[in-house]
Amino acid sequence: MKGKKRLLLIFSGIGMFVFLFSQCMEKPKEKVAATELSIAGAETCKQCHQKAYSDYLKDPHTHTSWPVTTDEVVKGGGGPKSAGFSFDEHLKIVIEKRKDGMYQVPYYDGEEGPARRFDIAIGSGKHAHTYGFWREDRLNQLQLTYFRSINEWTNSPGYPNRMFLQAIGKRCLECHTSYAKATNVQTGSLSIENSFDRKSIIYGIDCERCHGPAGKHVEFHINNPDDKSPKYVKLYKDLTRKQKIDACAVCHSGNDVESLKSSFAFKPGDDIAEYYHYNPGSFASAEPDVHGNQIGMLQGSQCFIKSNDMTCGSCHNAHKAEDNNLIAYSKKCISCHPTAKHSKKTLGNAMVNTNCINCHMPLKASKVITFQQAGHEGKSAYQLHTHRIAVY
Ligand code: HEC
Ligand code: HEC
Ligand code: HEC
Ligand code: HEC
Ligand code: HEC
Ligand code: HEC
Ligand code: HEC
């Protein structure tokens, strides 16, 4: 969104218009009508799209980032087994509740080090929550990450060393928030970090991140309640297969890319090539990583190559996660493969007619993300179902 004028238009629940200028507008003095770039906010959609809205409230996209405002730093109940993480007999980090929030506090041989507050969380917690704390307007990652599969605190993936500050850059937020205004700041002769306009951050991935700015759509339909044909909004059903894939590729084609411009500006219908330059071998390479690169994996599958119309939507409802329901996903396989030919040996497996996933999209460990558990020298794997559908 760099250099682009952007108008942030927010409608209040009652229908009164409140105009908020997020960044420089050409003529911000007088009230202006909504434009193609006006953002209305997810709350506004509720009144006319109740089903989409109530599904969205439960979807991991919605909860993939949030400001930490309560003591609940791990969502979904239960809570981690330990109250912190011990690196060795000298250093441990303890989770503590203090007057103004929750903190990660290091102790070196019992002596307290710099306490750092849980300010924001990244990750819905389906797999993990990792956290950031503010140093003025720069965001740094907290040392400990929560991992669901072991229900424990671990050393954050990729954290170079104990208590060394790792920055959370705008690239994380491009995939995990709906908007964040960032500028580059020189922090050393060779290092650049991002400084954020904290108030600009729209947490979670909301309606307009996937559907494009809808301020004008909302304005039109509020003023024309009898017109039931969609106006000023891109319809997914009118997109080509490539455009549909691109709309998910913004965040699901891996991080091994060169950003050409901020992906916050991406709207359905845009060509992903305007945003990313894929390094040779990444997008469709033989070895894309299971983490964050579902498209690279899927594109190597015969299902994708040989069918004319397979998209992410063939198996996923973008509004509503299936919650690990592998039987429900298998119904999508069966819709294209009503008569899969299995050998006698395979047919002996009790799951063969109901759960196709464990055999054809087995769990694979990410090569880029591993996590360290307390008391273990080795690293544990982060496992995801591969999108390279095949006979394994
Ligand atoms: C005042 C009512 C109203 C509001 C508010 C509203 N819409 Fe709509 N929207 C409609 C109508 C009417 C249609 C056309 C009928 C339909 O598809 O439901 C529509 C259609 C759509 C479609 C196309 C559906 C399709 O057929 O593919 C999308 C996407 C959409 N709206 C997104 C949004 C988003 C995002 C918001 C909030 C920012 C929003 N709408 C707010 C009235 C509204
Ligand atoms: C992760 C991306 C994503 C998010 C977030 C999202 N949508 Fe959608 N939405 C889609 C896709 C993709 C389709 C097309 C589904 C299809 O055609 O199979 C769609 C379809 C729709 C439709 C058409 C009718 C339907 O349900 O198929 C409406 C209306 C709509 N979305 C509104 C919303 C609203 C309102 C929100 C926020 C409350 C929202 N969407 C959030 C991706 C998203
Ligand atoms: C290219 C987009 C992209 C970028 C950049 C990105 N992520 Fe992710 N992230 C994803 C996707 C997609 C998932 C969903 C599962 C998967 O593919 O691993 C995810 C999953 C996660 C999860 C687990 C969420 C859960 O509970 O399921 C965490 C935590 C996370 N990312 C943190 C980060 C951090 C911190 C950064 C920056 C260092 C970052 N991500 C950068 C796309 C991205
Ligand atoms: C949109 C339709 C479609 C869907 C959905 C679909 N497939 Fe396929 N699949 C195909 C086509 C087309 C082929 C190629 C068949 C051929 O080569 O004759 C294929 C091939 C395969 C093969 C053979 C792969 C190989 O390398 O030879 C397997 C196994 C398979 N699919 C399993 C699945 C499973 C499991 C699912 C669900 C997770 C699934 N498919 C979903 C269309 C689909
Ligand atoms: C703005 C970035 C972004 C866009 C656009 C986006 N996603 Fe995601 N998606 C994510 C992130 C981040 C996660 C991890 C959420 C979490 O924290 O668990 C995710 C998670 C998912 C999941 C796993 C959650 C679940 O349902 O179990 C699916 C499936 C998914 N996305 C499909 C899609 C599809 C299909 C599209 C295109 C219509 C799409 N996404 C568009 C960023 C995005
Ligand atoms: C043939 C069916 C199929 C297609 C097509 C498909 N997926 Fe999936 N996807 C699955 C299944 C099955 C899972 C595993 C569900 C689970 O673990 O809850 C899954 C899981 C995911 C996850 C969650 C990973 C995790 O473990 O949290 C993401 C993200 C995702 N898919 C994104 C996409 C995107 C983006 C596309 C389009 C490029 C896509 N999928 C196309 C079947 C499919
Ligand atoms: C126990 C593991 C297992 C399960 C479960 C399983 N498959 Fe297979 N599948 C295989 C193996 C192994 C092959 C190779 C042929 C063989 O040895 O049976 C295969 C072959 C295939 C093929 C390629 C052969 C052809 O007909 O073109 C398709 C398509 C396929 N499976 C789809 C499915 C679908 C759909 C489901 C779920 C309803 C499913 N499979 C469940 C293991 C499995």
List keywords for this structure.
392 residues, alpha+beta, 7-stranded antiparallel sheet, 5-stranded antiparallel sheet, 11 helices, 20 strands, binds heme C, Cyt_c-552/4, Multiheme_Cytochr_ET, Multihaem_cyt_sf, signal
Describe what you observe in this structure.
The protein is an alpha+beta fold and 392 residues long. Among the domains are: 1-62 and 207-233, no CATH class; 63-204, no CATH class. Helices cover 19% and strands 27% of the residues. The protein contains eleven helices and 20 strands. The protein has helices at residues 42-45, 50-58, 170-176, 207-211, 215-223, 241-252, 294-298, 302-306, 326-336, 344-347, 357-360, and strands spanning 8-11, 17-20, 65-67, 84-86, 91-98, 101-108, 111-112, 116-117, 120-122, 128-135, 138-141, 144-147, 152-155, 166-167, 177-186, 192-203, 257-259, 276-278, 363-372, 379-385. A hairpin with a 4-residue loop joins β12 (144-147) and β13 (152-155). The chain is globular, with a radius of gyration of 23 Å. The two termini are 43 Å apart. Bound molecules: heme C (7 copies). One heme C (HEC) binds next to α6, α7, α9 and β20.
